[in-house]
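Quick one before lunch.
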Amino acid sequence: MWLPCGCTSKYVASSFARRILASHLHVSGRSRCNVAAFMPEAAGFEGVSGRAALRELSVSNSESFWAAVARHRLSWSIPFHTVQDCDLSRGKIKWFEGGKLNVSVNCLDRHVHTCPERVALIWERDERGSEMKYTYRELLEMTCRVGNLLRRHGVKRGDCVTIYMPTCPLAVASMLACARIGAAHNVVFAGFSADALAERIRDAQSSTVITVNQGVRGGKVIELKKTVDTAVESCPTVKQVFVAMRTDNPVTMTARDIEDVVCEPAVMNSEDVLFLLYTSGSTGKPKGLVHTQAGYLLYAALTHRYVFSYHDGDVFGCVADIGWITGHSYVVYGPLANGATTVLFESTPIYPDPGRYWDMVERLKINQFYGAPTAIRLLLKYGDQWVNKYDRSTLKTLGSVGEPINTEAWEWYHRVVGDGRCPVVDTWWQTETGGICIAPRPSDPDAEIVPGMAMRPFFGIKPVLIDTERCFGFLQGELLTSNNTSGALCMAQPWPGMARTIHNNHQRFIETYFQPYPGYFFTGDGAYRSEEGYYQITGRLDDVINVSGHRIGTAEIEDVVVRAQLSCPAVAESAVIGYTHSIKGQGVYAFVVLKKGIDVKEADLSRQLNGMVSEKIAKYASPDFIQFAQRLPKTRSGKIMRRVLRKVVESDLEGLGDLSTLDDPAAVQEIIQGRRCHVMAQKR
Ligand code: 6R9
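Model of the 6R9 complex:
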């Protein structure tokens, strides 16, 4: 057993000293006392006497705000000298420069020092009722063992380790072990195919992969090690694969594999890379967004604490997979930085039955539950009895993330799951934003919450809406200042949690997020600002669709579809669009134009296309509908008119809009006719 020493006590001592200092600052004035009880740092801000004033200051004087919060909530080995050095017009973002710290020390050692036996992780394994608990001391030991193992095998500061694992303690320890030794991690969702995994390993230039022999989800065994074996065939950079055993079945080991995953923390600069995480954009190639150490951790911790009103001793249950940003920020980093007990959910909402979540809430005494609208919509259909069977009295806050939550699902979540007594926080954010940016809380305890609205910007967040009118293909940039208006959702000010770059492609980072509206960060989403000034997200403005809360670029799927071969290449072109789906939020609809003279059975080709998309990307990206067409509606300059295709699929023929730029109007009629046949065939 290896326990780090040396700098551990130094970190803890400094944070302890600050806590004492903060408690001495509570003394002045009654209203100030209230706001200081809410956020101790507020005591140091002149003239801030309430939550509204605190929020105002966090935006108008964001440097003072973030400096105070960073000093108070993170343990530094060397304090920062510069709060921020950002220039949005150039995509330059730096926070807390000069500061040195270690993220794993912040997530583990300082809690081990004060409460070693507090439970850090509750692993809700796929097999119901077999949960396992890990204290902060145990998690630190596991992290150190993995860290030592990686170091021993030559993983160095600045290297990037790919983690292809289900949500489990060893995956968390692997992420923290990377942070401990100064390596970046690249967690790839364990539902991705070998090709998708390989692309991410290559782009990240990883030489080390950590995986498990097999995954278990919904009672099914998933051959993760085999997928890694296939993936690394096309990854010349990979030198070693560490394999942990999730099941008892032995795996074939090759010379590359080192079995058994069994450390002085590296002192890192605030702006060193903490992790890459791949997400879909509107082109075919996923982008590896880069997050750095201090700013990301601080933002994840602060949002976790305040959006969910997390308090010491609470059990926090975010059911996201660690392969997504939600898992990074609200399963791992935010809760652990706050010393919370966090749940690792390995299963599915309906395994072994649709009561799984609420049984877990009862068994683990979960206080905050954070999930996705797609699961809520699914469970709603099974009926209230699955919820009512279980005691949910521990619940205090319910959260939603990943896509818009429709009013019916929101109401059910609030009325049935929360018995009408828990605030529901619809949280809007992105891989790019690092943490929650818009959510109904924090706000006054009795402040209204409007169903299906993210509503209020978080501390330090300044959203704006900008006119989306296109002019010669460029976006126009008029700032929309009034309420009751819709536009492109942008951020007018940097915040510590935002991504710093796209791995190996800073130019794409600038072009995607900072050039569309110079001086602002462009989210890619549209939003409506109500009469009261509340924000509601209306959906993506680009060609990204959101299936069950997972982003996928339409171009990524089209790329696979046009590569389809039977005996010879069969597909001439394809257009993929998202359409409203009652459970998944959006479904995938593919239009396919075959090459001339190709004679294939459409059903056979459809089956093959579905198989190919599952194999090349992931199952969730596989089209729900494939419609074969003679041609696609295009503008005279040759651009596919997706807007028109979307309207046809949603049966909104009145709303086809301006067709004056259409090259050949007959193409639209053919598509409409084809869609009718398709719908009729479905009904039969
Ligand atoms: C955290 C996460 C980001 C995209 C985002 C938006 C959509 C997320 C939402 C929401 C409406 C919400 N989105 N939360 N839309 N209401 N509460 O999901 O990150 O996977 O990067 O997706 O998801 O379109 O731009 P990510």
